[in-house]
Design goal:
This protein is α/β, with parallel strands linked by helices. It has 8 helices and 10 strands. It has a 3-stranded parallel β-sheet. A 3-stranded antiparallel β-sheet has the order 4-5-8. The chain binds zinc ion.
Length: 267
């Protein structure tokens, strides 16, 4: 089976170094395997989407020499697919309506056997299987998690009517025939939940590669919140320098030339 990788940015702000590393990393893994590399805009969480940000991210990726295969997939246009998956989960008894307000920590299973009297359905939860889910991450090795004890039954459709990230990702990866997921290791803790959903829906589980996150001087993940700077896209010199930093972070030293040549020589 030929490799299909993907990059799936959320359009909540401009691309920063951390997301460039994930983009370059996923591109390298897919291309080294002679595979395809797909682009998916994860705009399922519509209230968080910053208008124009998706276009900005795509332009920046192009500027950095990254070319994707096929058409761009937009989660916001795929509600029908998520509805179908939810219907399948419901028909198979894997989900139930939950009338609780937002809860922190492990969900106690309040609505597992039916809504308590007087409560209305707000969200839809997935019954976490009470078993250890194990997978072999290419960089982290064996990872094991029992979702029932780590997070409990988790939300797949939110109280605001939007589909949860976990369900959208699983449906999209399967529907796009993705065989290899390369992303930041902040998503390592989502993987067991996603595998549980894949099994419930009868999907194959892709190969996982969780890359170390780029951290700031305080050792925290770079994000818009802690003021990670958007990537330079205008000045060629700075684009080349930034791409060299991203490649070095992935353990690859290449001679500075054009972004395209640098990526080709990293293969
Ligand atoms: Zn509940």
């Amino acid at each position: 089976m030929s490799t299909v990788g993907r990059f799936a940015p959320s359009p909540t702000g401009p691309l920063h170094l951390g997301s460039l590393v994930a983009a370059v990393g996923s591109w390298l893994y897919a291309r080294r395997a002679g595979g395809r590399w797909l682009m998916r805009i994860e705009d399922v969480d519509t209230p968080r989407v910053v208008p124009g940000s998706a276009e900005e991210i795509l332009a920046a990726l192009t500027r950095y020499g990254l070319e994707w295969d096929g058409e761009i997939v937009w989660q916001s246009r795929r509600t029908r697919l998520y509805e179908d998956a939810l219907a399948t989960l419901r028909a198979r008894g894997f989900v139930y309506d939950c009338g609780c307000s937002r809860t922190d920590g492990v969900y106690p299973g309040t609505c597992r056997n039916g809504l308590p009297a007087g409560r209305e359905a707000r969200a839809v939860r997935f019954r976490a299987p009470d078993e250890v889910i194990a997978f072999d991450d290419v960089l982290h090795g064996r990872v094991e998690e029992n979702v029932a004890t780590s997070v409990g039954d988790f939300v797949v459709k939110r109280a605001d009517g939007l589909f949860a990230y976990q369900l959208a990702v699983v449906v999209d990866d399967a529907e796009q025939s993705v065989t290899q997921v390369v992303r930041g290791d902040d998503l390592l803790s989502s993987t067991a939940r996603q595998i549980a959903l894949q099994r419930a829906l009868g999907y194959a589980t892709p190969e996982y590669v969780h890359l170390p996150l780029v951290r700031n001087a305080d050792g925290e993940k770079l994000s818009k919140r802690d003021g990670a700077l958007p990537l330079p896209t205008l000045d060629e010199r700075r684009v080349v320098e930034t791409l060299a930093i991203a490649l070095r972070f992935l353990g690859i030293d290449v001679k500075e030339s054009t972004p395209r040549e640098m990526l080709e020589s990293a293969l």
